[in-house]
């Protein structure tokens, strides 16, 4: 994926407050000439402008730069097996608007997605500002080829989503795994403000991990890095959607927690996250123990990754974040007992538009700023 994260980072940083070039250079650890080159390009594109010079002391006057947030928009879609959430994002990361539409992944999905995008692209006053469309898709995604290798939740395998969608849309299209899309958003607007290296742990219908090393999202040679959900824990464990047994996901994904609850006779049927949450809140016997055990399994596996990569921060995201208070009593001691140095753990309140915003950030990084 062609990407110039530096320009996206500059836009994200200036989206919070105007800064001069030496402040940008200091915060991103870049040389003055590099920052001058990138900001010149962003000014040429009409995305930044210079404010009145500020004179302080005897030094040269400093020229603060500010973002023109409405100069270009990016559209991000989060593809879920029942619906699609769209977010239209400004250059400073703020939302123009968001929408939710029903979606059936089995009924001409490419055409359905194209129709949603074309509606936004056709809106007078906003459509012509949209520079690209990003899609955050659950499963194993090859972002370079734009192919969905395997998405059990959507029932897709080897779907050439990006090439097919690109034929129907007049703007560039990007796809990536949903967790990695959100990881890009974290890098630009969240954990990346304080850390150059960190992990994003996504818990929900699956378990995924976003990896940021040296301020870059790690994708691996074929773009499938971060398959944390399929870290093996027990060869005799429950069967996994990947065809193996005892993967992390088979203990900690929402469906796995629900299945364990049935096995232990705690519930009569597999329940959804909201119901699991209600049962834990009511302290239904056995539920909190089950979740703490799942949290411990997650924590031991995460500690291994933390030690290998020597990261100091981990951010938890995902639809199961409501269960985090019950996963955490197992997770935290397992991590703290397993890591060789300290780890800062933060938890993001989940919002259904999070992956959509992440997808819009992918476009910001790879298309808008790189032009
Ligand atoms: Zn697996």
From TrEMBL:
It comes from the Bacteria. Keywords: Kinase, Transferase. Residues 7-48 form the HTH arsR-type domain. Signal peptide: none annotated. InterPro entries: ArsR-like_HTH, ATPase_NBD, HTH_ArsR_DNA-bd_dom, ROK, ROK_cs, WH-like_DNA-bd_sf, WH_DNA-bd_sf. GO terms for molecular function: DNA-binding transcription factor activity; kinase activity. Belongs to the ROK (NagC/XylR) family. This is Putative NBD/HSP70 family sugar kinase. The lineage of its organism: Bacteria, Bacillati, Actinomycetota, Actinomycetes, Streptosporangiales.
């Amino acid at each position: 994926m062609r990407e110039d994260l530096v320009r996206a980072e500059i836009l994200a940083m200036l989206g919070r407050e105007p800064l001069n070039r030496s402040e940008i250079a200091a915060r991103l650890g870049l040389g003055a000439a590099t920052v001058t080159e990138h900001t010149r390009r962003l000014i040429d594109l009409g995305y930044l402008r210079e404010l009145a010079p500020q004179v302080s002391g005897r030094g040269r006057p400093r020229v603060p730069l500010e973002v023109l947030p409405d100069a270009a928009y990016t559209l991000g879609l989060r593809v879920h097996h029942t619906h699609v959430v769209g977010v239209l994002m400004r250059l400073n990361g703020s939302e123009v608007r968001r929408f939710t539409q029903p979606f059936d992944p089995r009924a001409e999905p490419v055409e359905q997605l194209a129709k949603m995008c074309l509606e936004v692209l056709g809106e007078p006053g906003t459509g012509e500002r949209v520079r690209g469309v990003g899609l955050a898709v659950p499963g194993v995604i090859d972002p370079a080829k734009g192919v969905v290798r395997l998405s059990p939740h959507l029932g897709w395998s080897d779907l050439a989503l990006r090439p097919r969608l690109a034929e129907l849309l007049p703007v560039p299209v990007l796809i990536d795994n949903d967790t990695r899309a959100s990881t890009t958003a974290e890098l630009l607007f969240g954990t990346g403000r304080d850390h150059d290296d960190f992990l994003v742990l996504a818990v929900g219908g699956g378990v995924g991990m976003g990896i940021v090393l040296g301020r870059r999202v790690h994708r691996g040679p074929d773009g499938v890095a971060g398959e944390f959900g399929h870290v093996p824990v027990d060869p005799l464990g429950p069967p996994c959607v990947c065809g193996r047994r005892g993967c992390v996901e088979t203990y900690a994904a929402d469906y796995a927690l629900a299945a364990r609850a049935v096995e232990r006779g705690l519930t009569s049927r597999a329940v959804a996250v909201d119901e699991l949450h209600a049962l834990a809140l009511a302290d239904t016997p056995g539920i909190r123990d089950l979740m703490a055990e799942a949290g411990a399994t997650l924590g031991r596996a995460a500690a291994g990754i933390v030690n290998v990569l020597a990261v100091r921060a981990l951010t938890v995201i995902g639809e199961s974040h409501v269960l985090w208070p019950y996963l955490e009593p197992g997770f935290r001691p397992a991590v703290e007992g397993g890591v060789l140095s300290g780890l800062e753990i933060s938890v993001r309140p989940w919002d259904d538009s999070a992956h959509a915003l992440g997808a819009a950030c992918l476009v910001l990084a790879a298309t808008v700023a790189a032009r």
